[in-house]
Write a structure and sequence with these properties.
The complex is a heterodimer of chains A (283) and B (205).
Chain A lengths: L3 E7 L2 E5 L19 H10 L8 E5 L3 E5 L3 E7 L11 E4 L4 E3 L8 E6 L30 E3 L23 E7 L10 H6 L3 E3 L7 E5 L14 E2 L4 E3 L6 E4 L6 E2 L3 E5 L1 H7 L7 E6 L3
Parallel strand pairs in A: 10-18
Antiparallel strand pairs in A: 1-4, 1-9, 2-3, 3-8, 4-7, 5-6, 5-8, 10-17, 11-12, 11-18, 12-15, 13-16, 14-15, 14-17
Chain B lengths: L1 E4 L4 E5 L3 H13 L5 E6 L3 E6 L6 H9 L13 E6 L6 H8 L3 H10 L2 E6 L6 E5 L13 E4 L3 E5 L2 E4 L4 E3 L2 E5 L20 E6 L4
Classes of the chains: A mainly beta (283), B alpha+beta (205).
């Protein structure tokens, strides 16, 4: 009989995520997947999982699980308070619990189990796309999550000494976007010369950032065009959106900048109220 | 074509018109440059999403520039026929905009052949252009908070079918029972770029 985990509590938002649905944007299907790809990948590596194995993405902690069988788990990303190890594989015996408190820094914690979370895949992925409403439902208390068997050898690593999410102002590399010329000549320096604060309206679709003051110099409509995560888009409201995993496949508002893809995982760990600053780089 | 910066993993190609989009998309689909993991056509652009472990943006840019837009041959695509009941709330408004009666709107919609130019907005939502053209319909000044699944609608030069209930600002002229996006079907999306579509008045053969 295969293993399972019973969900006792979920915190503000817990979803199942994996590598998402790449390659389907021409059908209007976004990639979705883990918002912090690096932390997701590390969690699976620590357990000798298939790199595509699904995990739980836990927002602001609060997840509580009971193991119905002996399992091996690992958490990565934001370190939650509690006694469980972090960035390390550990065994959980039958009937034992994994209880995550709130993180002191960072926003998203990845909880992986050796074998992967084996809920039903949709369009080749177990990711919950919160924009398109595709994939498994949001995880709820009382859910019984089946554990799969997508494994190879354990790596023999006790702990991964990776850099953990920070709580102060975070610096992000930004490149010029395709429609920077839709704004006045101060736009680039406006974007890169002062911090922005992440608003509480932020979610898996994107971070909302107040404080962009540059004006549009074009009044016509921009035909919708493809975009990827990291895009910094300016809608008519002037509140910039920094797109994350569940971004729309195309957008009709100008994108003035792009966070370097290697820094977008940092964006997934920013909390409402936290500040970020864009550092200009060339591609 | 103009190549625009689109982050560290993608290149945005802007062209003059929708025909050029379709030609470029067909050329790229036929022989995708190495390391391109997704190609996203839209009204005036094609976005190429790359894997930085396999290729550089410079190499992809070079490969794109070498593609010719002269060959506007489209690969053979399936033809889908959709039965539509033309009783949409905006049918009268559309007639007024186009300067004809609602019967004429229906006649044009059903007689012309349509092609999916690109998708976006939601899984399975295709933007269809007519082979004969002649459509330029304004969106509704205030979008509806709920457009039902299966609604057949118009905006600009395009027609589309809403795959599921959602907000929407297009002009609704009818409804179809056919589910254009169904996860239980293989493939789930009826519309992909290049799919050819004909609409028929439901109840008539």
């Amino acid at each position: 009989m295969s293993a399972a985990l019973t969900v006792l509590a979920t915190g503000p938002l817990t979803t199942v995520q994996d590598g998402g649905r790449p390659g389907k944007a021409a059908l209007g299907i976004g990639r979705s997947g883990a918002a912090d790809r690096r932390a997701f990948a590390l969690a699976n590596r620590l357990l000798g999982n298939d790199p595509g194995a699904a995990v739980l993405e836990v927002t602001m902690g609060g997840l509580s699980l009971r193991a119905e069988h002996h399992v091996t788990v690992a958490t990565t990303g934001a370190r939650c308070s509690g006694t469980a190890p972090h960035n390390a594989p550990y065994a959980v015996e039958v009937g034992e619990r994994v209880d995550l408190g709130a993180p002191a820094a960072g926003f998203r914690t990845y909880v992986a189990v050796r074998g992967g979370i084996a809920v039903t895949a949709v369009l080749g992925s177990r990711s919950t796309d919160t924009l398109a409403d595709l994939g498994p439902s949001v995880v709820c208390s009382g859910d019984v999550l089946p554990v799969g068997d997508l494994v190879s050898t354990m790596p023999g690593v006790d702990v991964a000494p990776v850099r953990e999410p920070e709580s102060g102002e975070v610096l992000l590399r930004v490149l010029a976007g395709p429609r920077l010329d839709w704004f006045d000549q101060d736009a680039w320096s406006d974007l890169t010369s002062h911090p922005f604060v992440v608003s509480s309206q932020s979610n898996r679709i994107g971070l909302q950032l107040e404080g962009f003051t540059s004006s549009r110099v074009r009044s016509d409509e921009l035909p919708s065009e493809g975009l990827v995560r990291g895009a910094v888009q300016i809608p008519p409201s002037g509140v910039a959106v920094l797109f994350l995993a569940d971004h729309p496949v195309t957008g009709g508002y100008p994108v003035v900048g792009y966070v370097h893809d290697d820094d977008v995982d940092l964006c997934a760990q920013l909390r409402p109220g936290q500040a970020l600053r864009f550092r200009p780089v060339r591609s | 074509m103009r190549l625009l910066p689109s982050g560290s993993t993608a290149v945005l190609v802007e062209v003059d018109d929708l025909d050029a989009v379709l030609a470029l998309y067909a050329a790229l689909q036929a022989t995708p440059p190495a390391g391109v993991v997704d190609i996203v056509p839209a009204a005036r652009t094609v976005l190429l999403i790359t894997d930085p472990a396999i290729t550089s943006l410079n190499d992809v840019a070079r490969a794109v520039r070498s593609r010719s837009l002269d060959d506007r041959q489209q690969p053979d695509r399936e033809l889908i026929e959709l039965p539509v009941t033309y009783d949409g709330a905006d049918l009268d408004d559309v007639g007024r905009q186009l300067g004809c009666d609602t019967g004429e709107v229906v006649r044009r919609h059903t007689e012309q052949q349509w092609t999916v130019a690109f998708c976006g907005f939601a899984p399975g939502f295709g933007y269809l252009v007519s082979d004969d053209g002649g459509w330029d319909v304004s969106r509704r000044s205030s979008p509806r908070t709920k457009v039902p699944a299966g609604a057949v609608a118009l905006a600009g030069e395009f027609t589309g079918v809403y795959p599921r209930e959602s907000p929407g600002g297009w002009q609704i002229i009818g409804r179809t029972q056919v589910s254009v996006f169904d996860l239980c079907r293989d493939p789930p999306a009826l519309f992909r770029p290049g799919t050819r579509v004909r609409f028929a008045e439901a109840g008539r053969q």
